[in-house]
Amino acid sequence: MFSSQGPSLRELAGQALTSVERGYDLLAPRFDHTPFRTPDRFLDAVGAALAPLGPFGDGLDVCCGTGAGVRALGPLCRASVTGVDFSAGMLARAREAHRAERPAPRWVRADARALPFDAAFDLAVSFGAFGHFLPAERPALFAGVRRALRPGGLFAFPIGAPPPLTSPWYWAFAGFDTAMRVRNAVRRPPFVMYYRTFPLEGVRQDLIRAGFGVETRPLAEFGRRPDGSPRCRLVLARRE
Known about the structure:
Blueprint: H1 9-16, H2 20-27, H3 40-50, E1 56-62, H4 70-73, E2 77-85, H5 88-97, E3 106-109, E4 121-125, H6 138-148, E5 149-160, H7 168-186, H8 200-209, E6 212-218, E7 232-239
Parallel strand pairs: 1-2, 1-4, 2-3, 4-5
Antiparallel strand pairs: 5-7, 6-7
Helix pairs in contact: 1-2, 6-8
C-alpha cells in the first residue's frame, strides 16, 4: 500500500487491531514510506517560520516517531536535539536514520502524557501526533511540555484548518473517525487515532489553562481557503 516499500492493507489492518504502541512498533520499518510521515514541505515551512525567533539552545521533538522533526529542529538548535516517543520500534528506526546527524540527537522512550523532563529545553515541536490524544488527555500533555520547557521556552506545532462540509476530505475524516470509535467500542486495547479531535480553539484554551501565552501565524506556503482564512497555521505557545 502507498508504495512497494510501504505496508500492505492487511498489515495496516492488523496493526490497527493492536494497541497504539504495538501498532507503531510493527509499522516502524516501513513508516517513512507512508503518508503518515510528516512531509518535508511541512517540516521546512515550520523551520523557516521559527528561524527568526531563534536561535534556540536545546530542542525537543514530542512524539518524534522516526525522527522526521530533526529536519526542522537541527538547524534551529545550537546545543542539542532530543526526540521522545513511546514506541521502541519507532525510536530504533530514528536512531538508524539519523546516526550521522551532528550533534547526534538523543532518543528517549517515554509517554508524552508524562514527560520525564524539567526545564530542560528552549523549544519543543510536534508533528502529526495529536490525533493519538483524546481531548481529556490534552491538559496532561500540555502540562508536561510546559514543565519540560525553560521559562520563556516555546512550544510550536502546525495545525490545519478543518475541511469544509463540501470537501471529500471532510467525509473521509468523518468516516475514519466513526470507524475508529466503533473499533474501540468493541475491542481492547483501544487504538486512539482520530482526525477531528484537535480543533484550534479548544487547543488554544487548553494551552492557556496549562500556563502558555498563545498566538498563531499563517503558514503562507499552504495558501488560504475561499473565506480568506489560512489553510494551515503555526501555533506558538510560550511558557510564561
